[in-house]
Amino acid sequence: MNKQTLFELLQQQGITRRGFMKYCTALTSLMALPPSMIPIVANALESARRPSVIWLSFQECTGCTESLTRSHSPTVEGLIFDHISLDYHHTLQAASGDAAEHAREQAMKDNYGKYLVVVDGSIPLGDPGYSTIAGISNLDMLNETVAGAAAVIAVGTCSAYGGLPMADPNPTGAVSVTSLIKDKPVINVPGCPPIPTVITGVLAHYLTFGSIPELDELGRPKVFYGQSIHDRCYRRPFYDKGLFAETFDDEGAKKGWCLYRLGCKGPMTYNACATLKWNQQTSWPVESGHGCLGCSEPNFWDAGSFYKALSIPDGDYAKAAGYAVATGVAVGAAAGFVNRKTKSTAVSQHTKVTVDDFELNKDKK
Amino acid sequence: MEIFSTANDFLLWVRGDAFNIALTILIIGVFIRLMEIFLLGRKKDFSEPRGTEWGPGLKNIVTRSVVDNGTFKRAPFVVVVGYIWHICFFIVLLFFVPHIELINAMLGIKWPGLPSQFVDAATVIAMVSLIAMLWHRLTHPVLKFLSTYEDYLVWFVTFLPLLTGYIAFHRMIDPYPLALGLHILSVELLMVVFPFTKLMHAITLFIARWYTGAMMGRKGIES
After folding, report:
1. For residue B43, is pLDDT > 90?
2. Residues in chain A closer than 8 A to B15 (CB atoms)
3. Which residues of B touch A242 (CB under 8 A)?
C-alpha cells in the first residue's frame, strides 16, 4: 500500500479542506448513506491508505475498462480512481511482457492479504487455450491472484454472471467468477458495461470502510442495484397512464412514452442507470429512446428477444398450440365415438320390463 | 438440487417451457370437451319448424346475460357480486397493457389499455368479490352442502392469478422476476385446470345458450 493517505494526496493536488468535505458529501450521497455519515466518511478517507488493485481481464471486450476510463477528469470518480494504486491492468499499464507480469507478482507479494482483485471477463473452462495471458490460463491466473486478495470485485456481466461468452451455446465453457471463487468475498458489479460511477463507487466504499458493501442475493451492492430501472424510470408515469410507444418512430416514441411494448426489460432489471445516468449524467438508454436490455441481470443474452414485451411467452407456442389442437381433436373424436358406442350398446342390451316382472311369487306360478 | 440458479431462470422457464406445457394441456383439454359435446348428437327432429334456429340462437347468447328478475329476487347477492366479479375480472384480463401485449403476440389483435391504477383498483374489487363469494359459499347452509372439492379448487386457481398479479404489480416480492414468474405460473395452473372443471363454462356457455335459443326458435318461441 502507498504510504500517503488519500487526504495528503488531495492536499498535494491543491484541494482544500472545503473541497475535500464537498467531495466526502458527494461520496456519502453516492453510497446512499445518511448525511450524518459525512464526518465518518471524511475521517475514514483522511486516514485511508491507497489500496493496491490488480485488474484481471479475461474473456471480455474491454468495454468495462472503456466505461471506467469515462469516469475521468475532476469528477468524484476521477478523484477516487487517481487514488487507488492500480498496479496491474493490461490495457492501462505502460509495462508489457515480463515486466507487466512482474508488476502483478510484486503487488501480490507486497500487499499479500490486503489487495483488491478486479476481474472483468469470464473464465473459459472448456479449453484453457481459449484465453491466456503470458502463457498462463485465465483459471490459473485467477486462482493464483485471488489467493492473497482481501476481496474480489467482478466488474461487468461477463465476470459476474458469465455474460456474452457464456451465452448459448457457450463455445468456450465460460463461467463467472462467483462460480469459481468461494473462499473470498466477491462483489458483483454487473452491467454491459457497468456505470463508471458504480465501479468507482464500490471501490470508494471499500476505501472508506475497509469492508464490502451490503449485497443482494445476486451478489450486487444494494446501494446501486437495490431498485429496478422501472421504478426509477422517468417514463414510468406514461406506463401508469397506459401511454406506450408502439414503434421506434411513432408519435408515442417522439413524445417519450413508455417503451414496455417495444420490449423494455426495465421492470426486471436492477441497476442505477435511471438515477446515475451515463457520460457524466448526460443520458441513459431509455432516455435516448431504446428499451432497457437488462444487461445487469444473469443470462440476459439468452432471456428472449430484446424487442419482445416482458409479458409475452418466449417459447415456440404456435407450434405447441398446433400440435395440441390436432391431438385434442383426435382424442376428443375418439372419446366421442366411445361414448356413442357405449350408448348404443346400452340401448341394444336394454331389456324391456313387463308388468309380469313385478308380479309377486312369479316363480311359483 | 439447484433447479433454478436465479429468479431470472425461473421467469424464463415459466415464459418458455412451462407456458408451452400449460397451453398444450389447455388446448387438448378444451378440444376433447368440445368434441365430446358435439359428438353427443341429437335425434333427428321430424316436426315441421315454426321458426329459424340461428338468429334466435345467437340472440339468446346475448339476452341471457341480462339478469332475470326471478333469479335476482331469489339470490340478489350472487347476482350482484357475480356481476361485479366478472366485470372487474374482464377489465383486469383485457385492459392491462402487458396482458394486451400477450394477446397481441398470440392472436395478432390489440386495443388500447387502461391506466394501471384503474386496473389495480379493479383487481382489488375482483379479489374482494371472490372472497365475498367464498364467504357466501361457506356460510350458506345449502350452498355449503352442495359444494364439492372442485368448487374450492376452482375458486383457488382463479383467485391465485389475481393475488400474484397484485403482488407482482406492487413489487411486494423481491426480486421482481420471481414475483412475475409466480404470477405467470399461477395463470398456467389456471390454464391446466380450466378444461377439466366448471371453469369450462367460459366456453360452453355459448354452446348452451345458442342451443336453447335455437331450440326455442325452431318451435317459434320468443326467448
Report:
1. no
2. 304, 312-315
3. 97, 112-116
Q: Does B135 lie in the same domain as B86?
A: yes
What is the arithmetic mean of pLDDT over A334-355? 88
Residue A314: list chain B partners with CB under 8 A. 12, 15-16, 19
Tell me how many domains chain B contains.
2
Specify if B50 maps to a domain. no
Domain of A16: which CATH number? 3.40.50.700
Whether residues B113 and B176 share a domain: the answer is no
Query: How many Å lie between the alpha carbon of A67 and the closest alpha carbon of chain B?
Result: 26
Give the amino acid at A93.
Q
Do A266 and A185 belong to one domain? no
Q: Kindly determine whether residue B12 and residue A314, on different chains, have CB atoms separated by under 8 Å.
A: yes
Cβ <8 Å between B36 and A336: yes
Chain B residue nearest residue A338, CA to CA: B36
pLDDT digits (tens, 9 = 90+) for A133-174: 988 999 999 999 999 999 999 999 999 999 999 998 999 999
- For chain A, say whether B172 makes contact (Cβ under 8 Å): no
Residue B86 half-sphere exposure toward CB, CA atoms < 13 A: 9
- Residue A288 near residue A253 (C-beta atoms within 8 A): no
* Domain of residue A292, residue span: 227-334
- Give pLDDT, residue A21: 79
Tally A–B CB contacts below 8 A. 148
Q: How far apart, in Å, are the Cα atoms of B131 and each of B89, B144, B188, B197?
A: 14, 15, 21, 20
A362 assigned to some structural domain: no
In this structure, is residue A46 part of a structural domain? yes
B8 touches chain A (CB under 8 A): yes
In 3-state terms chain A splits into helix, strand, coil percentages (rounded to 5) of 45, 15, 40
ipTM value for the complex: 0.81
Residue B82 belongs to a domain: yes
* Nearest-10 crossing angle of helices B17-39, A317-348: 30
B64 at interface of A, judged by CB pairs closer than 8 A: no
Contact A9, A80 (CB under 8 A): no
Asked if residue B140 is part of any domain, the answer here is: yes
Q: How many domains would you assign to chain A? A: 2
Residue A161 sits in the same domain as residue A231: no
User: The domain containing residue B140 runs over which residues?
Assistant: 69-147
* pLDDT above 90 coverage of chain A, percent: 43
Which residues in chain B touch residue A331, judged by CB atoms under 8 angstroms apart? 28, 31-32, 35
Residues 180-209, chain B, touching A (beta carbon < 8 A): 180
Instruction: Kindly give, in sequence order, each residue whose CB lies less than 8 Å from that of residue B163, ignoring residues fewer than 6 positions away.
Output: B127, B186
User: Is B77 among the domain residues?
Assistant: yes
CA distance A165 to A143: 20
Q: Does B12 have pLDDT greater than 60? A: yes
A312, B105: Cβ pair inside 8 Å? Answer: yes
Q: Name the pLDDT band for A17 (thresholds 50, 70, 90).
A: confident
Structural domain contains residue A356: no
**Around Cβ A94, how many Cβ atoms within 10 Å?**
7
Question: Greater confidence, B137 or B221?
Answer: B137
Compute the nearest-CA separation of B192 from chain A (Å).
Answer: 13
**Which candidate from B25, B30, B115 shows the least CB-CB separation from A242?**
B115
* Average of per-residue pLDDT across A120-142: 92
